[in-house]
Amino acid sequence: MFLHPNEQLEIIKKGVDCIVDVEELLQKLQKSYAQQKPLKIKLGLDPSAPDIHLGHAVVLRKMKQMQDLGHEVVIIIGDFTGRIGDPTGKVKGRKALSDDIVKANAKTYCEQIFKILDENKTTVRFNSEWLSKLTFEEVIKLAATTSVARILERDDFQKRFQKQVPIGIHEFFYPLMQAYDSVELRADIELGGTDQTFNILMGRTLQKHVGLEKQIAIFMPILEGLDGIEKMSKSLGNYIGILDAPEVMFKKVMEVPDNLIMKYFELATDEHPTALKEWKMRLENGQNPRDIKLELARIITQLYHGQQNVKAAEKYFVTVFQEKKIPDNMPTLFIENDQMIVKNMLSQLVSTGIVLSKSEFLRLVKQNGVSLNGDKLNLDSLDQIVKDGDVLQIGKKRFVKFVQIKCC
After folding, report:
1. CA torsion, points 378, 381, 384, 387, in degrees to nearest 10?
2. Cα separation of 310 and 302, whole Å?
3. Tens digits of residue pLDDT in 209-221
4. Prediction pTM value
């Protein structure tokens, strides 16, 4: 059922920032292997930002790798903790999310995570299942397991305290509540980004306090965006969205800086460590980074869109960006009726990653950078009706064809 523990460890270690601790992890893997019993892998998600890009997906890809090794993956949707909001990295307290917003975000999150994880092998739990049932006496006992001094070790709380920015007492409960999730779940391993270090280590502490075996903490690094400098972020426009159209995704991967090729292989793909060594050796031996990046683009695009879409996406890239021609195949947007107008298609253009935002599109229109069937658009012509087969060109190298949904 399982690979040898040593090989599992090599796969798990691929691309990680830190493991607490490696020796304990190996012991868990050896016990799991001997008993042929999967480990329980936990990932907590705060349902406040449901649009996932490759930066968010770094942790999910690691979960997928351990799922493929035969272990049990459990996603904890923090519908209860979401009412507080994770204070990590915040310079001020965050407003609690309403139940309706939390549920809507959770639904969107689940739809996206199953583009990475195997839905049939993934358990999704909501921490309101247990946190909402705690009595006040149990909450007091939970609070007694740590000290204010320990909580104030967090950099974000320290900075707010020093600047006399208010800290709500309820915010102190967030790491305790996340830690309680690990107790309830009896997690063997918890994953998160490096910004979750305090919260995840709190889980180890609380498990030990109640007499459970401590979970292993695995921290994944931050993935830089296409600018090669800043953390991948939709607001910075340096992101690759997992819902981007295949042609858009392929093109964006080709924009990854050469010095980040190996990091993207490590964090954004499920390639085996042996294959990574080969990629690295080819780069070091002087192979053109563009050729290796083409293979990276094929792998990443296939992960999210399947092999059938990779060839079309690559052909689109070669035609538009290398041969500088108008492509035969291009991303399509569907129009529902013969009364749809250009400005009503902006949401689809943004959601598919063809444009960063509505404001970017409007800015390009003002700069005469948008054409419909070869005719330049201006702000007054955005009420123009879009017909089946129309081609929209945005800038020099972005094309999209409109296709009307046929009623049977």
Report:
1. -30
2. 6
3. 999 999 999 999 9
4. 0.76
